[in-house]
């Protein structure tokens, strides 16, 4: 075999259709590409003026116009930018994948740093025109003195035609002869929608015009008389210095971009130049209900050109609940997701955002605690989610995670533990449903105890996460265990008497309820008004919940109800029950009372099953009837 070095050759007739049709997945993109070329042409000209290489009157109004003509089926992109000479057309247009933008940047890099406004990158954007057009014309006149205007025509193959043109105005007009299958792009609504989507923040004013408005239409006439308005905002808020922006502006921008008429809670203005370039605003929206938050929207821009929504490779996933705009000039425009996943730059951006969010939370916590508390109910889901997803984030924010208590305060876990240390050590009592657990809450409150309220679906996962992170903390639902402080430690009976009471009560209740297996615990509770209550250990309840969540309804039998009936021997009724036990003629009453006590305890623990409920109502009526019968009527 002979050794050989060579160049791989590409047959342009074969590769050309691929570039034209499949380079971009979305046809709309051609609008973005052609408008951004017009903007680049203007940015370049401005740049040359600023360094004295071009001489254009100061008061020149620069523009890009998109003009549709339904009759001729043409779409024109007109700019009054730098224009091209015949040489430049040959170089930049006839050479596919040669980026004039890159070349310009390389050439003028050091002279000034405004270069970041140039959008182009790969030298492929122009050819996206062929996704919708079967003939494209360029008519252009360079800014250079004595330049000749040029006309370039291509009907989709690899052949083009070049000629001199009659054109006298500086700038470029790209005319697309729209193909039969793409006539939707002559529709004003469609065009406006695309322009608003991609070009709403481009740095040059962009106008959409109808080449031949139907003059008989009054509306059009009125429209024509009005001063035309650009479709874009050439100076988006995120590019301003944070110190120059007012709250009002942030809110207005939010309303405009996200069409959310609830003000955001707060926001973070990102403004990094070094070591990478990143600008943007992240908003913390007000949640209307928990799940709505999952539809957050982060719009990604590249030099003010819209690229995509919700790119999860750039935004840490948990921050997808936020809304905002991010402008990353260093990201390629045609981002492919698999590329982003492996990109070091993207990881840096993502880490930076995470850090900024943590910083903002710290700042609010330290300087605006009142507001922070107020925001908490809206922001806690993604903070908790973020902690579970990202250890580093947890480390950064763990001291600012707060909990609402049964006394309506917002405190940290540390504060809770300190306040309650003497009462129940490292146990954290929590409430998952304030209504259902009201009885337990009032018991707690009576004794000056507090629990934290964790009502959201995410909380059950979050406490398990916390238990893993902070080894000695244990979370107990308020109905799972008794705080030592609820118990009476004074006037203790002697042990023997204690034991006897316990055994008697156990026997009475097991018999009355006809349940040998029932777990009974006898306590001397300070709250004398409570006869009995149900406790279900944290662990059993979690097991039950887990198996339910996994859809194993049948597993209920594998984890039988492990609940314990706690009887309060400090309660008058329970004392009476003990006295009744030896009275033969009261056997029936005793059963009735025990059943009722059990049901009442059950009811304040959870909803009764329908059968139990029916019995409870019947029994209640019976007891009331007995009460009346004892009166001599
Ligand atoms: P890129 O923008 O990545 O350089 P394009 O294919 O979009 O690639 O454009 C190729 C080149 O053609 C541009 O860099 C520019 O030099 C030239 N060009 C395209 N459109 C215009 C225009 N409207 N005015 C002046 N030059 C243009
Ligand atoms: Mg381009």
Structure in a nutshell:
This protein is α+β, with helices and mostly antiparallel strands and 633 residues long.
Describe it for me?
With 633 residues, this protein is an alpha+beta fold. It has 4 domains: 4-225, Histidine kinase-like ATPase, C-terminal domain (Heat Shock Protein 90); 237-367, Ribosomal Protein S5, domain 2; 401-485, Rossmann fold (3-Layer(aba) Sandwich), CATH 3.40.50.11260; 496-534 and 559-630, Heat shock protein 90, C-terminal domain (Four Helix Bundle (Hemerythrin (Met), subunit A)). The protein has 19 helices and 20 strands. The chain has a 7-stranded mixed β-sheet with strand order 5-4-3-6-2-1-7, covered by helices on one side. A hairpin with an 8-residue loop joins strand 3 (133-141) and strand 4 (150-154). It is elongated and about 120 Å long. The model has no long low-confidence stretch (mean pLDDT 86). The structure holds adenosine-5'-diphosphate and magnesium ion.
């Amino acid at each position: 075999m002979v050794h050989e070095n060579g160049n791989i050759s590409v047959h342009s007739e074969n590769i050309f259709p691929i570039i034209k049709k499949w380079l971009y997945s979305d046809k709309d993109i051609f609008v973005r590409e052609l408008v951004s070329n017009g903007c680049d042409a203007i940015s370049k000209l401005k740049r040359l003026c600023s360094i004295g290489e071009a001489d254009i009157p100061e008061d020149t109004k620069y523009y890009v116009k998109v003009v549709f003509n339904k009759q001729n089926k043409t779409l024109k992109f007109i700019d009054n930018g730098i224009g091209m000479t015949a040489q430049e057309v040959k170089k930049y247009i006839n050479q596919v994948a040669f980026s004039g933008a890159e070349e310009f940047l390389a050439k003028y890099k050091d002279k000034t740093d405004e270069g970041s406004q140039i959008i182009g990158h790969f030298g492929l954007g122009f050819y996206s025109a062929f996704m919708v057009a079967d003939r494209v014309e360029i008519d252009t006149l360079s800014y250079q003195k004595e330049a000749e205007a040029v006309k370039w025509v291509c009907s989709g193959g690899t052949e083009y035609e070049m000629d001199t043109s009659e054109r006298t105005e500086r700038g470029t007009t790209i005319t697309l002869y729209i193909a039969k299958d793409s006539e939707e792009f002559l529709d004003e609504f469609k065009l406006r929608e695309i322009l608003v989507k991609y070009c709403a923040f481009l740095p040059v004013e962009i106008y959409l015009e109808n080449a031949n408005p139907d003059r008989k239409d009054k509306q059009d006439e009125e429209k024509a008389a009005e001063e035309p308005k650009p479709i874009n905002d050439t100076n988006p808020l995120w590019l301003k210095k944070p110190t120059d922006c007012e709250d009002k502006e942030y809110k207005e921008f939010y309303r405009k971009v996200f069409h959310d008429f609830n003000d955001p809670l707060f926001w973070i203005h990102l403004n990094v130049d070094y070591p990478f370039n990143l600008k943007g605003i992240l908003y913390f929206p007000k949640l209307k209900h928990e799940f709505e938050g999952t539809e957050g929207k982060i719009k990604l821009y590249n030099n003010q050109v819209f690229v995509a929504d919700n790119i999860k490779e750039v935004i840490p996933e948990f921050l997808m609940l936020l809304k905002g705009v991010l402008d990353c000039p260093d990201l390629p425009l045609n981002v492919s997701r698999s590329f982003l996943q492996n990109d070091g730059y993207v990881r840096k951006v993502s880490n930076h955002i995470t850090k900024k969010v943590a910083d903002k939370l710290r700042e609010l916590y330290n300087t605006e605690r009142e507001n922070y508390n107020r925001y908490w109910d809206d922001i806690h889901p993604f903070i908790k989610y973020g902690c579970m997803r990202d250890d580093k984030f947890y480390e950064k924010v763990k001291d600012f995670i707060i909990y609402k208590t049964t006394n309506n305060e917002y405190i940290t876990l540390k504060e809770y533990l300190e306040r309650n240390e003497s009462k129940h050590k490292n146990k954290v009592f929590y409430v998952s449903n304030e209504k259902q657990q009201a009885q337990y809450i009032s018991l707690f409150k009576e004794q000056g105890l507090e629990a934290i309220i964790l009502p959201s679906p995410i909380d059950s996962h979050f406490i398990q996460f916390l238990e893993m992170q902070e080894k000695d903390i244990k979370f107990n639902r308020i109905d799972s265990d008794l705080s030592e402080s609820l118990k009476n430690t004074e006037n203790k009976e002697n042990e023997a008497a204690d034991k006897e009471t316990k055994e008697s009560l156990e026997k009475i209740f097991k018999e009355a309820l006809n349940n040998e297996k029932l777990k009974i615990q006898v306590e001397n509770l300070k709250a004398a008004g409570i006869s009995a209550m149900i406790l279900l250990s944290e662990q059993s309840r979690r097991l039950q919940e887990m198996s339910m969540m996994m859809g194993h309804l049948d597993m209920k039998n594998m984890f039988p109800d492990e609940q314990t009936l706690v009887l309060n021997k400090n309660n008058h009724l329970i004392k009476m029950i003990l006295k009744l036990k030896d009275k033969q003629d009261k056997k029936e009453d005793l059963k009735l009372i025990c059943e009722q006590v059990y049901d009442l305890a059950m009811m304040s623990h959870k909803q009764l099953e329908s059968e139990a409920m029916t019995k409870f109502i019947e029994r209640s009526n019976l007891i009331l009837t007995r009460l009346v019968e004892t009166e001599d009527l």
